[in-house]
Amino acid sequence: MNISVVGTGYVGLVTGVSLSEIGHTVTCIDIDETKVEKMSQGKSPIYEPGLDELMKKNIQEGRLYFTTDHKTGFEKADVIYIAVGTPENAEGAADLSYVMKAAEDIAAHIRKDAIVVTKSTVPVGTNEKIKQTIMLNLVNDVHVDIVSNPEFLKEGSAIYDSFNGDRIVVGADNEKAANVIEEINKPFGVSVYKTDIRSAEMIKYASNAFLATKISFINEIANICELVDANVDQVAEGVGMDQRIGDKFLKAGIGYGGSCFPKDTKALIKIAGNVNYDFELLKGVVHVNKKQQALLIDKLYDRFPSIKGKRVAVLGLAFKPNTDDMREAASLIVTEKLIEQGAEVIGYDPIATNNAKRLLSSKMTYADSVEDAIKHSDVALILTEWDEIKNIDLHAFQTMKTPIVLDGRNCFDLETMKANGIEYHSVGRPSVYQNEDVLIHTE
C-alpha cells in the first residue's frame, strides 16, 4: 500500500521505516527541511540501533521517501499515520496542537479516500476530535475513516519491537478500516487485537501506567530492603517467579524517565480528573519516581559531610541505555544538585553527550570514556546501565582518589566489588565497605 506518515520523531520515523521494510511504499512528512534532507540521505536524527541501516536499505529499494510538502506526501496515500508529538502541557495534560494541525493538513491536501491512523499517544476521545476536524476542513469530496493504532515501542529496541511485539492494537468503529490496518501489519507476524477506538486509546495509557507502577513499587520495596537488611535483587527474583506478577520491570533503581512514562502517567491522571475521578494510586507512582531520581544525591550526602570541591564522575546521562534521549533523565536532576553544592562534575555517556551539552549546566565537563571520567575522581555515580559501564575492568576504579561507587542501576555483584577493593552503594542492597570505620561513622 501507499502510506504516509506525518511526523518523523521517534514514533513516526520508526513506524515509517518498519512499514517500508515489510513492503509498503512510505512517504514520511516533516516541516523541518534540514531534518528531511538528512533523512533522505539515510541518516537518522535520533539514535536507535539498526535504524540507519534500514533507512538506507529501503531508500535504495525505492520504498521510503521524505518530504516537507504535504500535497506531495498525501498525493497517493491510501493510509495516513499521524505520529506527531503530544508533549505535556502546563496542566499535565497532553498538548494536542500538533495532532490537530496534522488533521487540518490532511483535510486540506488529500485527494482520494483514505484511512487516517493515529499513532500518537492521545487522550480518550481524541480520535473523534480528529475526525471532526478533518470533516470540517475537507477541501475535496473524499471519504475518511479513523483508526487508533497506539505504539508500544521501547527506545533502544524499537526496531526489534516492531517485528517482535506482543500485540498490535487496532481500534476502529468501522470493521472494513480495521481489516485494512490488520492487513497492512500482517507481515510483522504479530497478533492483532481489535477493539473500539476509545478502548484502544485507553490501552496505551493503561499499559504505560501499569509498567510505571511496577517500577515505583519495586523501588519502594528496595528502599525498605535497605532498612531491614534484605537484598532487593533476591526479593524481585522471588516475586517475579509468580506467573501472576512476572519478572519484567521489577529492576530496582533510580526510577523511570524518557518520553513516555512521565508524560503518560501525568496525562492519565489528568484524564481521570476530567471525569472527576481521583487516581490516587497513579499519583503515588509519580511521587515515588520523582523522589527516587534523587536517591543517589541522598546517599552521597550520607557518605560525605560536604561535596564542595569534590570531583564527581557521572556515568550515563541518557535516561536509559541504547538511546540518546535525555527527556526526564535522572542526570538532569542529579548533575544540577551536584553543581549547586559546589562539586566538580565530569560526565560520560557513549551516545548522549551532544544532547547532554545542550541541556546540562555549562559548568559540566565531559570525558571520552568511563576510565577517563573516573580517573582521580572522589566518587563515581552510575545513572545509566550502558554495557560499556557494566563491563568495565573493575581495576579501573583504583585510579580514583578512593574507589567509591554509588550505583543507581545495580550493575555489579556485591561480592565482586568487595573482592576488588571498591566501596559500593547500590539500591535496595547492603552497602559494601572496605573501611569498617566508615561503616561505623555512617551508621
Please tell me about this protein's structure:
The protein has 443 residues and is of the alpha/beta class. Helix content is 44%, strand content 14%. It has an 8-stranded mixed beta sheet, sandwiched between helices. Strands 11-10-9-12-13-14 form a 6-stranded parallel beta sheet. Helix 9 packs across helix 12. The longest helix is centred in the middle third of the chain and has 32 residues, at 197-228. The chain is elongated, with a radius of gyration of 24 Å. The termini are far apart. Mean pLDDT is 96; it is low at 439-443.
Features:
alpha/beta, about 450 residues, about 15% strand, single chain, elongated, 19 helices, six-stranded parallel sheet
Structure, briefly:
By secondary structure, this protein is α/β, with parallel strands linked by helices. 44% of the residues lie in helices and 14% in strands.
Furnish the topology, listing elements before pairings:
Layout: E1 2-6, H1 10-21, E2 25-29, H2 33-40, H3 51-60, E3 64-67, H4 70-74, E4 79-82, H5 97-109, E5 114-118, H6 126-137, E6 144-148, H7 158-164, E7 168-172, H8 175-185, E8 192-195, H9 197-228, H10 232-240, H11 261-274, H12 280-292, H13 295-303, E9 311-315, H14 330-340, E10 344-348, H15 353-359, E11 365-366, H16 370-374, E12 379-382, H17 387-390, E13 404-407, H18 414-419, E14 423-425, H19 436-442
Parallel strand pairs: 1-2, 1-4, 2-3, 4-5, 5-6, 7-8, 9-10, 9-12, 10-11, 12-13, 13-14
Antiparallel strand pairs: 6-7
Helix pairs in contact: 1-3, 5-6, 9-11, 9-12, 11-12
